[in-house]
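Structure in, sequence out. Go:
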């Protein structure tokens, strides 16, 4: 471990009395091998959408050449000549700010395995998020394999890939949200699945310590988790109330964006994990209260937007008193903190942030994007950008211990005092 005194860095981060912990990868390896068919997919979008579909109100658009707006989008398709077609999300006009989900979806035939590869372009200050999901149950549920957030800083096409290592994969989708302005045209091209005869091994971290229990533990039956589909504030409040008295993990899925007209959604002393699968929708504050408050609770948010919350501490999300919060493919944007931590304020708790965007939040005092106080956690493959505050425009860290930051952009944040970009 390495402990450093209070100092500020020109990346929108203000640190005060914290300790960085190095991370390691274990060597435990589990493998499996099956004779599975390869899914067949190869699409350049030159002759149409292949097997992909996209529907209103937020549709992907096929285009050649550059996109209509300057300073965003590719200048041509990914081919050597640049004269072919690609698919993109138009962020101008009614498609900003923060609109979506834009869904481009296909069914994989045959169901099988392979390596999915594609090219993407994410140039412009108004870029939101782009993700790739797969489904094992014909679209009833989805798993995110790849995600990027914010301006990637180049007009050139970039390649991404991941392994489809499960023979039950039935469907594939690209899902995008626009950001804060017109210059947020995200694009994809040349999607294909190449042959992979044997799935890649799954890696499990090796335990850091070993021990011999004094006696064999008694295994108790584990209640099955429940899942609900919600579209109103009343339904969401009722689901949280029921979870407070049931010792079982609960997952709710949003069927639409929910406006929190009555104020904060509160999670207090929940006995088991509560998960909100946003399915690309959002929780929108009333402009006077924060969006989410949690204490002594384990909460997981996926594929969700948190916006328009206002509070003295944690306008978007306030996390306190031994809570555990995990954000995966979540956008926290356009929230206000009267004092600290406009986007997320974490105190004496744990935060795990993956493939997420903290953007365009403002705190009057400290931590425009996030404030950490007595905090442990991990930030990976995310972006903290365009936030503002008195101190620590992007992040304000105070009296925190173990923080791991990997492959994360912290930029374009502004502070009137210390720690602005």
């Amino acid at each position: 471990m390495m402990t450093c005194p209070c100092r500020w860095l020109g990346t929108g981060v203000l640190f005060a009395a914290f300790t960085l912990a190095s991370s390691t990868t274990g060597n435990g390896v589990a493998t499996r091998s099956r004779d599975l068919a390869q899914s067949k997919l190869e699409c350049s979008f030159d002759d149409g959408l292949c097997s992909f579909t996209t529907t209103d109100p937020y549709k992907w658009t096929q285009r050649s050449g550059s996109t209509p707006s300057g300073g965003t989008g590719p200048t041509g398709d990914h081919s050597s000549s640049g004269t072919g077609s690609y698919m993109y999300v138009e962020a101008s006009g009614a498609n900003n700010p923060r609109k979506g989900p834009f869904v481009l979806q296909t069914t994989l035939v045959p169901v099988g395995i392979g390596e999915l590869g594609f090219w993407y372009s994410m140039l412009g200050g108004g870029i939101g998020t782009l993700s790739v999901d797969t489904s094992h149950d014909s679209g009833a549920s989805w798993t995110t394999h790849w995600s990027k957030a914010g301006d990637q800083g180049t007009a050139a096409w970039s390649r991404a890939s991941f392994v489809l290592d499960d023979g039950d994969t039935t469907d594939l989708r690209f899902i995008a949200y626009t950001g804060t302005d017109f210059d947020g045209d995200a694009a994809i091209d040349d999607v294909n699945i190449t042959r992979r005869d044997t799935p890649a091994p799954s890696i499990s971290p090796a335990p850091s310590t070993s021990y011999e229990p004094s006696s064999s533990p008694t295994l108790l039956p584990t209640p099955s988790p429940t899942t609900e589909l919600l579209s109103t504030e009343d339904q969401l409040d009722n689901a949280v109330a029921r979870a407070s008295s049931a010792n079982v993990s609960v997952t709710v899925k949003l069927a639409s964006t929910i406006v929190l007209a009555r104020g904060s959604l509160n999670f207090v002393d929940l006995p088991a994990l509560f998960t909100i699968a946003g399915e690309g929708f959002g929780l929108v504050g009333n402009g006077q209260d924060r969006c989410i408050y949690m204490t002594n609770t384990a909460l997981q948010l996926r594929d969700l937007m948190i916006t328009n919350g206002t509070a003295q501490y944690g306008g978007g999300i306030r996390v306190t008193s031994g809570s555990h919060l995990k954000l995966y493919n979540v956008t926290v944007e356009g929230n206000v903190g009267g004092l600290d931590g406009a986007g997320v304020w974490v105190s004496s708790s744990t935060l795990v942030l993956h493939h997420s965007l903290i953007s365009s939040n403002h705190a009057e005092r400290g931590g425009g994007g996030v404030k950490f106080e007595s905090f442990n956690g991990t930030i990976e493959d995310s972006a903290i950008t365009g936030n503002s505050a008195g101190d620590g425009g992007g992040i304000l860290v105070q009296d925190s211990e173990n923080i791991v930051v990997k492959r994360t952009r912290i930029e374009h944040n502004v502070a009137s005092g210390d720690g602005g970009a």
